[in-house]
Amino acid sequence: MKRIVALTGAGMSAESGLRTFRDADGLWEGHDVMQVASPEGWDSDPEMVLDFYNQRRRQLFEVKPNLGHELLAGLEQRYHMDVVTQNVDDLHERAGSTNVLHLHGELLKVRSTRDESLVQHWKTDLVLGDHCELGSQLRPHIVWFGEAVPMLEHAAEITSNADIIIIIGTSMQVYPAASLIHYAKTGVPIYFIDPRPTIHESQFSNLTVLAETAVSGMQKLVELI
Fold this sequence. Notes:
8 helices; SIR2/SIRT2 'Small Domain'; six-stranded parallel beta sheet; elongated; 2 domains; single chain; Rossmann fold; three-stranded antiparallel beta sheet
């Protein structure tokens, strides 16, 4: 059975109603990303950071997977599928994907500020005073700017074993996630789905670019493969 690895980003969830991580004005949901997605922002105003992620978490329960998520999950019927996503939502899982690796953490999890290995599932608001079993404050289980990406090595291993690579809704310009493509085996077919593609077929002999959104791009891709 051939192995497909899908590398997905914010554009994957845009048609579900979740805005992309960083809009053209450099803001995330109206906030400077460094205020809500950095250790410095957390140290400066943890209450504001918690409120920001509480809003994002609540929003998850108001949206549902789009057809792009569902078509990607459906490929598991014919292929060994792995999804490596930069997204912190759970829409891949809700669409039926069973092998999902979250590079940047998950909104529906929180972790200890004393021991980052102490991770809990969390569906309600997180507030100051919510502590782990060690007695320290819990924080969102999100990889912020300036923090290590602990799942990167595992993601690289998965990518290196792929027979087909699909890139959806991510420019692949932001490191370290963008480095994953360099682990692909020579000659592996790569399908790049993005309405504003940043790479072109003339650059790679094995690249097929679909200048489409996640939904329309996945509809075309299913026919191609």
